[in-house]
């Protein structure tokens, strides 16, 4: 008999969900985690980053407060206070994740585990463990390019631990992490420059929406260097950085953050030795049931490089555990996955972009609402929101919803239900507006 029915390598959101559900179905489960329980999202990703986003929003809110009658005598920002409070919240959440596992009888090994065969692993302590099924849920890590001086750069892992806020920040990348931290640092008072190797930010999002963010970001004072690349990072005696560039003038900075994608954590786990096939990007290749080419070995989440989103990893973990231990034939539907960028202002989208819809469906109708939120009007802020519906001409089905503006992610979650349910534009038109709200724009487009 094996030591465990299921052995999970990696205690991020997906691995924890899989372990918990499998244990609830009666399986004997163990989890190995070499760093901290909770994974990227809880420890060094979306949760602490969102808390920084909340903190950054106070900059504009406090500035706008005067037009709403508030007389704030003294206004100053203390980075160590926010940093330490965020880290304390991370500690609290890690404790809750740990408690969830222990409450379900899951054995936790706080050390690295590597495969030694299709049904066996070895812990860093040397202990050999057997399991009927092994689940790889090790996530991904920031990509750090091989350039001279890269050791002087930050990744998104270290940015939460800064001793002090840098006065000048250069951010490499044009994706969601780069644009989110650009907004955070800018609101905290840093001079921010984004360097992108192409002339497109947020590839995959609707073109109109991402162009609006670029326009607003430039208006706020965030600088962009497109079609540019880093040659070398040199640290001066005073601690500042000299950035030698290709495609633009050299830059000076107090910190440089690389947000140029994430790499699956599949190396050094003994996967290839166990016969598991890896993809061109180093990802674990799996079928629709999260199963590798080795029948007893499975993988979920970012390590598979399918959709690198925490809710997707959780869905995959739940479906895996239900199938393998609960006798529930469940798979994950990857269509109509909502996503958001917590930039300033935030943007969000679900379904097909206008370009994708035209390529796939041919004839589409596009409805937009370009407006200035009521709060911005009274505050004297010219920043405008943009909402967009993409409709299949042949069926009247709303196949995509995209928006940028205050609270867009909160609104988009509900709107995503409409896309998932294949509602028609006529259903939106027949819905009574909730006034006064920004959300009413979704049902008033003509």
SSE map:
Elements: E1 4-9, H1 13-24, E2 29-32, H2 39-44, H3 46-64, H4 79-103, E3 107-109, E4 113-117, E5 120-123, E6 128-136, E7 140-142, E8 168-172, H5 176-187, E9 191-195, H6 207-220, E10 223-225, E11 229-235, E12 241-246, E13 251-253, E14 255-258, E15 262-264, E16 297-299, H7 310-326, E17 339-341, E18 347-351, H8 354-361, E19 364-371, H9 374-379, E20 385-392, E21 398-404, H10 408-420, H11 425-429
Parallel strand pairs: 1-2, 1-6, 2-3, 6-16, 8-9, 8-14, 9-10
Antiparallel strand pairs: 4-5, 5-6, 7-15, 11-12, 12-13, 17-18, 18-21, 19-20, 20-21
Helix pairs in contact: 1-7, 3-4, 3-5
Protein model, in words:
It contains eleven helices and 21 strands. α3 packs across α5. The strands form five sheets. Strands 1, 2, 3, 4, 5, 6 and 16 form a seven-stranded mixed sheet that branches. It has a five-stranded antiparallel sheet with strand order 17-18-21-20-19, with helices on both faces. The chain is globular. A hairpin with a 5-residue loop joins β11 and β12. The protein has 446 residues and is an alpha/beta fold.
